[in-house]
Amino acid sequence: FSQTAQAANLSEHYHDITENDLQNSIIMSPESSKAFVNGNMVSTVQPIVKDGRTLVPLRFISEGFGAKVDFNAKNNTIAIKNSDKTITLKIGNKAIDVNGQSIQMDVAASLHHNSTYIPLRYIGEAFDKKVVYLKNENAQPYRLIMIRDEKAAELENLKLVRICEWLFQGKSIVYSDRFMAVIQ
Description:
Elements: E1 3-4, H1 10-13, H2 19-22, E2 26-28, E3 34-37, E4 40-43, E5 48-50, E6 53-57, H3 58-64, E7 68-72, E8 77-81, E9 86-90, E10 95-98, E11 101-104, E12 110-112, E13 115-119, H4 120-126, E14 129-134, E15 144-149, H5 160-168, E16 172-175, E17 180-183
Antiparallel strand pairs: 1-16, 2-3, 2-15, 3-4, 5-6, 6-13, 7-8, 8-9, 9-10, 10-11, 12-13, 14-15, 16-17
């Protein structure tokens, strides 16, 4: 018995994880324009690594966690509303306001290919998430980014990591209960 891995939904194909493990999580790679949101593969705008900083598409991350994003083109401000969070920021400005508390980011929000990018750490913390960078010896600076709830399953410690790397590289995976083959 074997089957080819279809990356549409991780929990259906990889039995060491459940849908609950993947809830409120996003898995991305700076090498891919695909991501897993709650275990489901979707197309996205690729993260950018610039001067040692990881910048992510603000709308994608925010909407991935169920928030509503409004952009005011007249004054270049963005308002993000989630059940208990209100986040505001302005393109070109280093300040991010989370529920009335202003925080200074080390890099300003910026536009890149018509998408607003923000440093990953700040948007992750604004949504009370844990951000995990997973390094591969051959890749600089890292291969995968996982954003998950603080108390959720530690996805980074599961076999899922290597499988996600291969899927983000566009490889097909054939597996069974006894073996796994990766096809270029």
